[in-house]
User: Which sequence fits this backbone?
C-alpha cells in the first residue's frame, strides 16, 4: 500500500469517527429535548388541572377547628371582597399536617403559622373573579393580612417563589418599575424568566 493510500484511509477513518461521535451527540440532544418538552408539558397540564383552585394564607386557625369552620372562614373573606354569596365549591379544607399549638397568635415569635386553606371552586369564572379582586383585601378590617394565591404544581410553585424572592430584592434596591407577570419578572423594559434572573437579584 502506498503512502498516499494509507493517508487517505486514515483520513476516512478519522472522518468516520467524527461522524459517529456527532451522531451520538445528536441522539443525546434529541433525547434531552424530548425529556424537557415532556416535563414542560406535564407541568402545564398539572397547572391547568388546578385552574379552579385558590389558596388562602394567614386565615387564623384554631385547635378545634372543624371543616365547616374552615368553610365559613373562607366565605367571610369572600364576603369582604364583595363576592356573591351563592358561589359554589367542590371542596374547602386546610392543607398540610395539623399542629397542636394552633390557637395562639401566629405572629408571635416561635408560634406556627396557620395552614393554608385550599378552595376548589365549581366555576373557573368564580375563581378568576376572586383572583383579580384579591388585592382589595388590603382594605378589609378583618382580613388585611390574608393572601390569596393560585394553586400551582410543585415545580411552578418553586419557580414562583424564586420570582417573588427576586421581586422583593428588587424592591429592597428601590427599583420602582418591577412586577411579576405570568412566569416572568419584569424590570423596567426587561423581561426575565426564573432561569435568566440577573445576578444581583439572586439569593446568596
Assistant:
Amino acid at each position: 500500500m502506498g503512502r498516499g493510500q494509507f493517508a487517505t484511509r486514515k483520513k476516512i477513518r478519522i472522518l468516520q469517527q467524527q461522524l459517529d461521535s456527532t451522531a451520538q451527540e445528536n441522539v443525546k440532544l434529541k433525547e434531552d429535548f424530548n425529556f424537557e418538552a415532556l416535563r414542560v408539558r406535564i407541568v402545564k397540564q398539572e397547572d391547568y388541572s388546578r385552574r379552579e383552585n385558590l389558596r388562602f394564607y394567614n386565615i387564623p386557625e384554631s385547635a378545634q377547628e372543624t371543616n365547616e369552620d374552615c368553610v365559613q372562614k373562607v366565605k367571610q373573606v369572600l364576603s369582604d371582597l364583595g363576592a356573591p354569596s351563592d358561589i359554589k365549591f367542590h371542596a374547602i379544607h386546610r392543607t398540610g399536617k395539623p399542629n397542636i399549638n394552633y390557637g395562639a397568635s401566629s405572629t408571635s415569635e416561635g408560634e406556627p403559622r396557620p395552614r393554608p386553606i385550599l378552595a376548589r371552586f365549581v366555576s373557573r369564572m368564580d375563581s378568576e373573579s376572586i383572583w383579580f379582586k384579591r388585592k382589595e383585601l388590603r382594605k378589609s378590617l378583618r382580613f388585611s393580612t390574608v393572601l390569596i394565591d393560585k394553586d400551582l404544581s410543585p415545580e411552578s410553585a418553586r419557580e414562583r417563589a424564586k420570582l417573588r424572592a427576586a421581586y422583593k430584592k428588587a424592591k429592597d434596591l428601590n427599583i420602582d418599575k418591577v412586577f411579576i407577570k405570568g412566569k416572568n419578572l419584569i424590570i423596567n423594559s426587561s423581561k426575565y424568566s426564573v432561569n435568566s434572573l440577573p445576578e444581583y437579584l439572586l439569593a446568596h
Notes: Confidence is low (pLDDT under 50) at residues 104-108.
